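Lecture notes, unit on protein representations.

Consider one protein chain, 635 amino acids long.
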Amino acid sequence: MIYPQTAKVARREMQAAICQGAGSSASVAILEKGKIVYSEGFGIADREASRPVTPQTRFDVASISKVFSTAAMFALKDMSKLDIDKPICEYIHDFVMADPRYKKITARHLATHSSGLTGSCYNRAFCFEDYDNYQGHVLNSMRHARLKLDPGAKSSYCNDGFTLIEILIERITGQKYIDFLKEKILEPLGMKDTGVSVGAAGDVDAAELYHYDTRRKSSREVSPGVGMGGLSSTPEDMCRFGYSFCKGAENKVLSTESLAMMIAPQESAFVKNFRTRMNDIHFGWDAIAIDKYESRGVRVLRKGGLTWYATQFFALPDLDISVALSFAGSGPSQRPGFLILDALLEEKGYGSFKKPVKKPPKSEAIPASMRHFAGLYANGGAAVEIGFDKESISIKPITNMDAPAEYIHSNGYFYKKGDSTPTPHYFAKAGENSFFVMEDEHNALLAYQRTPYMNEPVVLDYDIDGKTWLNVNMHVRQFNWAGMFVVKSKLCQSLPGYVDFAGIRKIESGDYAKTAGTFFRDQKDLLLKRENGLVTAYCGDYVLVPEETARELAGGETMATVPAEGYNAVWYKTKDDYVIKIQADEKVTAHVISADGKSTVYASFIHGTDEFFASRGSYVVFYGKPGGKVKIQAE
């Protein structure tokens, strides 16, 4: 063993994470100068079969797929078939948006998260059954979408940009994206255990998913957006890919120019307004440098991925090292990843990375020059009011019931009162925009952006205050990933001109409200339409209808049929507490949503039983393929 202390840390952290519920199994690998120097599996890949985790056991790697799609994009550039600064609408002719600025979006914008697209089409993105038209779903969703920022103005994490890269590659080459990726990247690097997600890859050695509450093995995850999050791999294979970015690698799949560009800073003028590094603005990577390592002369490239699996991936180009680890489970993978990397560099002689013990910050008077930052702020999810006192600020929620938070001021930073390990925050201004910024040990993250009070607020044409909305276009076998099964909308009397509909949105016209968190990831605009006498809400790639369309579920037997045309959902609201038994054909799945709409308490394909309890006022929904039938017995 070349690095015995690193192996000890890896075993301790990976086993601890599994024991604490981060996942059911895991794997880690380290490669140096082209050779695997450490590789180990943890837990059981398949409990029923007592199948262990081996170096060939695959895990879905989620957003690490973005580094692969970026590399594939550069391979196409190296073939002189793609100009990354040419508008993508010249390559993808059916890419159309309800915002003329979309015609300026380039492949460079897509790969650096700076396209201005609102975020992510999560509906159908991470399922337990294959969906063969995810690309079409994304393109159709964009037809009524608008940009939240000008292309190139600022990087804001965006999954949809990498689905467009996938489409771009297919349109130019005439090949399936995964076939092009295999030909140009995977096969030349000897990555035999990398491909599409484990649920779409057929009979492969994969780490199975076990849900923590039921202990049951689920169906294998399918991620049809291959370019944005749909690959599976092994830590050893990911290390081989990481090594291709290292100086000593002999097998290069990209030109010298493209390799240099892919790991070079792509910082916009926006990030120069902040005290600390912002690391989401590069070609596919989450970070192309991390301060605590950079201060020791070590450059680290990093990407993380999280769905029902969790993965961390590092490449150290100057040291010819790559590190990767994966969990079958969605627990935190950053902590073990960084601790393993810390241990490796310590063992190589770069000193200790142990955090020093610090005294708690002491409150100090806030300079008068900071007080102009008081006002209304939003982060996409909620609106808050930030007020200043002598030595502290208060952050008071306006659109939710969270308790106000107090932050003390100390040496130009603000720290949340009562936190055992307080994280520094500060105010910053970029152009006309003001921000409240959180600074962790790796980078700076926006916590809130300032948003204006409306002197002449626009009013919606539809009365949606206090309304409940039900999703009618969810994939048949998809869990409540983004909390969009049931949505409650409300207007805030103290905040005219805004509506809370799965996040705070600024009303722009009688039928349209734009996200107030324009600098934040995964935002969705709201478009209201009257269709067949019914107000329908389009929020991102989700379609929702008023709660009044739900049928009452009373005791006795009920038969339900999924409509042959239109939307694929049948909704009920329970009249009383019931034990419900269902007999559904394979075309139908059932979900029970709590009466407050906040949590899924049952999903038939997760819990594996046809009998469940639903309390009074709960929502019961059946998603199915056209003509799917279900018999419901409520007692």
